[in-house]
Protein 1
Amino acid sequence: MNKVNSYIVRMTGICTFMHFLVDGLCICCLYLLMAPTDGTQVVAVFAIYNLLAFLTQPLTGYIADRIKERHWLLLAAALLLTLAVLAAALVCNLHLTLPATLWGVAVLLGMGNSLFHVWGGKLTAVMTANDMRALGVFVSSGAFGLAVGGVFCSWPLLFVFLLALCLSAVCCLRMDVAAHDSMNNIRDAKWRHFSAMEVFLFIIALMAFVMGRSLIGETFSSGVEKNSFIILLIGAISMLGKMTGGWIARAMGIVSTLVVLLLAVLVCFLLGSSHLPVLLAGLFFINCTMPITLYLANVVLKGREGLAFGLLAAALMPGFLLSLL
């Protein structure tokens, strides 16, 4: 393994680990923040967090594409998340349960989450020349982070997440000196040029697919009776699906993989109802498509990988909201 490949593997690994930490930290912090309240602010706080964490990613992704020194995005994300944790601790210790204080923490968490995701998505796509396997590995760990942060929610865990995130960010920035050798890979890829209309239509189609995937994924997971073990299992299955999808598509081809996966999802959907193995299998198969859609978005929006990541992330929210209905 040459120096550049070694750097890519190590950087992908540390970005994946930070993704686990960021999502785990955010959900853990929100649960702890809501624990002392009477519950009246739960919907507002979680709505503010989710709207900022997901729907601002097209904007933060655009910034990631425009800014030359993208490490500032990681630093800003780490700073915002640190302030959020400290503010949450202050709010809970002093019983400052006014809406403004709770909403402020949600804003810090949401914006920190948004900045981190587009930074990591952009970096992974660029340094690996849009390798579906690396994209799947990076996006996979967030689902398990949510499960772990929710199930084992506690103040010690929250501060462990924060400390590990800050240390990982420092390691990442120290490794970044080698980035210039690998960051140019994607610019040399020989992809066809798309017209503005083709880009628009293809991105709309991908966003619609992602919206449907979010709805189907929530349908599978909501059909399972939850306990701590099942929540962790759902997180692990979702992570494994996202991580595996890129490798399957790399071996079988995108079209063949999508046909097989969607047929498998359809079978699971028809057989699902209350059968746990079938629901978990459906959840695995639908998550396998995630690195494929991200890869295709990066192909169409070459040079705007941050925007591509942000648009697909924003498309998750309507599907989630529809699943609540």
Protein 2
Amino acid sequence: MKYLAILLLAASVFFASSCGAPKAVTKSSETKVEESRPGMNLLTESDVIRAWAVGESTDKMVARNKATMMAQAQLGQLLDMAVHTTVEDYCVTLEDADQVIGKRYLSEKTQAVSNVMLTGVHIIFDSWEFDKQKNIHSNYVVVEISPEEYLTRLAAAVAKDPEIKVDAERLKEIFLKAVNKNK
């Protein structure tokens, strides 16, 4: 029985180490692929929320629409993660009773502002490629939301309700930290 346990342990270690080697090679080749795709380098800039996508089709407008919609969807996910983290971290500093009210209130306000911001995203990079053999247009786009603009709109939304006090500077600090967290 001990022999079987030792054999299984050795096989597990061997299997785990052999699985790790190809993963490292794959990761470095993925990095090279990402670097060669137009616009990908724009995603690493701090204090902005950006998303990259490519749309492919035999029709240029369909390719453009695919790229833009996919980038907007990804941007929505990034914004949602940053906003959720911000609301959670901001509300931790509040008193118990204020925490529940503040969390619900900020969640409602941030959701409303997020929806408005996502409909007006800025395309900051737009590049085309055409594969003649396959007759495929590829459109690479990078879209962006300015955290400053987001925070300005959020502050305006919060100012409409003077009964609730929000520390705008603290909120800005937490939001920018959340935006830069995954870069």
Protein 3
Amino acid sequence: MLSEKMQTSATRTRYQWQVENQPPAIMLIHYNKAGREVGRKPVNVAINGLPKVLTGNAQCERLWRVLTNTALQVEGFKIRAKYIAADSDTPNSGAVCRFGYSRGSGFDYVIDRGQVIFNG
């Protein structure tokens, strides 16, 4: 569910960035199912309209908090956030933020596409 929220928030960031004439940052507002505001997070935006992520695990941790409006925990379990640089030997390989438990499944957030990909 949080992976879906991350994907949706990245898309919302791009739309809001376009509507606001492409500023360097926006204020992403999070709502609950009843439509009430539950949080606001500033988002630095890259030139493609997606959240800007610099290198490093701390940047991925920040991305998680900004896009999901939650701490790096799910049901009491800590979520790992790892930055993985693009592989220059692999075509169409972009840098990713990898999120998951210490054991088990997780997902990658492809930074330059704003896309979530499950990695089993």
